Each structure stands twice: as C-alpha cells, then as structure tokens.
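Blinded run. Sample ID left blank on purpose so nobody reads anything into the name before looking at the predicted structure. Input follows.
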Amino acid sequence: MSLMIGIAAGSFTVNNITDIQMEQIIGYISKFYQIAKSVDLNSSQIFKQSLLNNLVTVFALWILGATIIGIPFIFLLVGVRGFILGFSIGILIKEFKTKGILLVLMGILPQNVFILLGILFISVTAINFSLYLLKNRKFYFEELVSQFVSYTFMVYAGFLVILIGCLIESYLSPYILLLPIFSP
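Blinded prediction complete.
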C-alpha cells in the first residue's frame, strides 16, 4: 500500500512543479545523455553502485524488521522508493510523451520489477518478524535465534531477487537508454 501511495504521490508531484523546475530537470537529463554518450559505460561499476544502493536499503529493512518499533519506518522507506519511481516515470512521460512511455517500459521498468519485488518481499518479511517479536515477548532464546536465522535467510532470498534487477540495471538498461530513439 505504501509503495502505491508513494508512486501516486510522485507522479502527482510532477504536475505541481514549475516550468523553471521542469526546465532544470530536462536540462539535467540532456546533460546526462551528453556525458553518457561521450564516455565508455563501465557495466561492472554501474553494477557495484546499484548493488551498494540496494544493499543499503535491504540492510535498513533488515535492521528495522529486527525491532518492534521499525514497522512504521519500513512503510516510510517503501513509500519513499515508490515516490522516487513515480516521480521519475511521471517526468519522463510528461516531457517525452510516447518516447517517454517507451523509455519507461524498456529502460526503467525491467530492473524495477525485480528490485521492487525484492523490496516488497523483504518488507513483508520484516514486518512479519517485527509482529512476531511484538506478539511473543516471552520466548525461549533458542526459539528467538531460530526465528531470527529464518528471517535473515528470507531477507537474503529477497536480496537475490534484487540482485537480478541490479544485473539488468547495469548490463542491459544503460544500453537501451542510450539507443538513438531515446536521445532528447
């Protein structure tokens, strides 16, 4: 739910930015394309950065899930990720129309399907573990360790799904985004 609210809020925010702000964003996108075309893309470096960015999110979700008070922050974190995605998609579609839709479908959506699935899976797992801690305040140490190990393995499984998205983001998407049809 918080992901959908974030995506909607991000896309609605696009309609409320001023013309000057929109020009600045379009200028940033144009400069990105100029720089990206003039340098050789290093997919392994892009992969490392994508992996690091998503690892920070996964680690935050894992820590928040291991605390009872982390539940609202999990919703907030997922909502912020949704806002960023919704805003990005909204800008591209508003400015580039049909080309923007193709850009989103071919260059942004593929990796985000896996990344968002992984984040949602980890978020649900983290919330469930937090609720387990809240409901079972009197538990044996062995039971707690067992549940925590199980929780950690589930987070790791979600991260493996995110890893697929990182691979797409670094080894496929940059080359799709730099196709001549997508140049501003």
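Unblinding after everyone has recorded impressions. Residues 2-182 form one domain.
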